[in-house]
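Subject: sequence -> structure tokens, single chain

Hey, anyone have a minute? Need the predicted structure for the following. Not urgent.
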Amino acid sequence: MNLKELDPGSSPRAAFGARLRSSREALGWKQDELSARMGVSSGHISGVETSRKMPSLRFAKAADVALGIAGTGDTFERLWREMQHGSLLEGFPEYLGYEGRAVEIRVFEVGIIPGLLQTPEYAQVLANSAVRRGVITPAQADERVSLLIERQAALVRARPPMVIVIMDESCICRSVGSESVMNAQLDWLVEFAAQPHTMVQVAPFAMGELRTFNRPVNLLTLSDRSVVSYVESQTQGHLDREPTSVVPLLTDYHQLQAESPSQAASVAMIKQLRKGTP
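Reply:
Had a minute. Here:
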């Protein structure tokens, strides 16, 4: 395939390859030079640039480092995630790029256990349900579960982020999957809460109007102390970095955290539910 034959608009893979080639050429590099900087063969570079080969996440991250754009808002990693996880809501692939670099992660969830705390079995039940309803394909269901495992693995690093999670009581009361799946999920919540860099609270139904959020909210604090918010509805996701929009959400989160039971009381609530006691 020559340069004239490559159409960036023909597919996401072609767009990835075209951008890689244009970025390389803008620096005056041959494929061999980019190959040496990325630690992959020049033949592989050629295959990706001409869309004959599918780039991997590792390839995308290596390209970002080699081209000096790692950590920016417009990376090959972001492009790869958008290409791989097209079934996700708008804004979420970009959010994932920030989540992997955050020093603090704050989450509020309603109805289901937050993704970062889901066991693979719990996540698979939810994905399979979406397939049965015709919302996603089986392949997309597998992608969702794999992505979730990848996100959780990214939290395990030398200096892990502080993860603060507030769940509406509906998250732990709503049964998902078999009894064994749900029991294992509740057990993991207790284990997760015991880690030194985590905090788990349950906002009880009795909180009533004091619950400041009615839909899922994610707040990320980055290393420069800036904050990114990601808010979802049933059909739409919205990523925001504007302080005028994000700071009020952070204030609402702090108020919710102050009104919610302590982690000790929340864990006791989870343990009671696990034992089947009222």
